[in-house]
Design goal:
With about 425 residues, this protein is mainly α. It has one domain. It is built from 25 helices and no strands. It is globular, with a radius of gyration of 22 Å. It starts with a helix and ends with a helix.
């Protein structure tokens, strides 16, 4: 909000006709002194965030179960969901990967992390392997490293997108501050989740396709299979757009991942993993129903998990999103890559049966898509979305998060904007290669 006020004040201070404001390049609409002021505010916000993470880590932001019993103290637990990732990494580090999905083993690995019970780890085995180095460290140290890494993933995402969206390069500090304080992403990064990696994956796919580096786009999509609900749609949509090399690279990446895991856990590891995580996903869907932003998850939380109308409407809604995305990607010469990526980033959060609120951080990609064709930062739209994300705080009281409605509105708005901008794009070499 302070950034928005400063930017609006800067526009008022600049001597320019009102009619010119919508069309003049951003460089002409912001006074240098005002721009410096906006950057100073952004730097202050970023410094405050860094200090908050450092203080929380040093203080522990809550203490382990044994320490609580010894001191009688209590407090907020450090790291949020990071305990599940840390414990999974420690299990792999200790050489017990065969017991990775054993509830008793996971509970044992999380025994001293201040949990009431334990947090189940449901990601594929190779994700736990990636966390193994962190699992060898003290929990607070591992949490600090993980938090910095996820913040860095967001920074890198914006840097990548600045190559295709000049406004991001121009306003890197305000946009970074706004992104890190965007409620879904702030919660994910501070709470030990990896939503920033999903943002990074989308950013890499966008930038790579823009630069005609399809092998890199495919690699990124293949690596995003650590969350199949995002990786699979991306590969399917690239297939519709006839990005053959990207699809081939994605398939090769998935095959390499499967082979590496099979060499340790055997060729049947997928079915074994799936049978272990399905009960958890079903239980988690009930426990965290108020946090779901997918169409089906939201309707089941608002209506009833077993309500037939909720299931039918949810399925129809998700199918409508899928068909819409398929239409956009099947016509790459009519719709810009920016608009297609923006719609996809929102759409994938709506079609999964169970998507958590922090995954709304993918709206960052949609925001970049809006700026891709803008003459100046659409501050009102971005600030409205930033503020609207806070409605999730009412989700626990309502039983279903209103953030799902916000995400749904953003998807509809993004699609309408995309369709209204529909045109016959110039047949550039990149476009032609994708259409062959």
């Amino acid at each position: 909000m302070p950034i928005y006020i400063a930017m609006e004040s800067a526009r008022t201070a600049a001597v320019i006709d009102e009619d010119e404001l919508d069309f003049a390049p951003v460089e002409e609409t912001i006074a240098p002194a005002a721009e410096a002021f906006i950057n100073k505010i952004s730097h202050a916000i970023l410094l405050a965030l860094a200090l908050a993470v450092a203080m929380a880590t040093v203080a522990g932001a809550g203490i382990g179960a044994e320490q609580q019993a010894a001191t009688g103290e209590s407090g907020a637990r450090l790291g949020g969901d990071f305990a599940a990732f840390y414990a999974a990494g420690s299990i792999v580090w200790s050489g017990d990967i065969d017991s990775l999905y054993d509830p008793a083993r996971q509970a044992e690995a999380q025994a001293d992390l201040g949990l009431d019970g334990y947090l189940a780890f449901a990601y594929p085995p190779h994700v736990a392997t990636a966390y193994a180095p962190l699992g060898s460290l003290e929990f607070a140290t591992a949490y600090a490293i993980h938090t910095v890494f996820m913040a860095g993933a967001l920074v890198f995402s914006l840097w990548l997108l600045s190559g295709v969206v000049p406004l991001i390069a121009r306003w890197r500090w305000p946009l970074l501050a706004a992104s890190l304080t965007f409620y879904p992403l702030a919660t994910a990064i501070g709470g030990g989740q990896n939503a920033a990696l999903s943002v990074l994956g989308m950013a890499v796919v966008w930038r790579a396709l823009h630069d005609d580096r399809e092998w890199l786009a495919g690699l990124a999509a293949g690596l995003m299979m650590f969350r199949p609900q995002y990786g699979l749609p991306l590969v399917g949509l690239m297939l519709l757009a006839r990005h053959w090399r990207a699809v081939a690279a994605a398939v090769a990446t998935v095959a390499a991942t499967w082979l590496a895991t099979a060499s340790v856990l055997g060729v049947g590891w997928v079915s074994a993993w799936w049978s272990e995580v399905v009960p958890f996903v079903e239980q988690d869907a009930e426990v965290n129903a108020s946090n779901s932003i997918s169409i089906l998850g939201f309707l089941q939380a608002a209506w009833s998990p077993d309500a037939r109308p909720a299931v039918i409407v949810g399925a129809v809604g998700a199918a409508s999103v899928v068909v819409t995305l398929m239409y956009l990607w099947a016509n790459p010469t009519r719709f810009t890559l920016a608009n297609r990526m923006g719609a996809t980033a929102i759409g994938v959060t709506l079609i999964s049966p169970h998507t958590m609120f922090y995954d709304a951080g993918l709206l960052i990609i949609a925001g970049a898509a809006i700026m891709a064709t803008a003459h100046h930062v659409p501050a009102r739209i971005l600030v409205l979305t930033w503020v609207a994300s806070l409605v999730h705080l009412a989700g626990s009281d309502l039983g279903a998060t209103p953030l799902a409605v916000v995400v749904g509105i953003c998807f509809v708005a993004m699609v309408v904007q995309t369709l209204s901008a529909s045109t016959s794009l110039p047949q550039s070499p990149t476009t032609l290669k994708g259409a062959v």
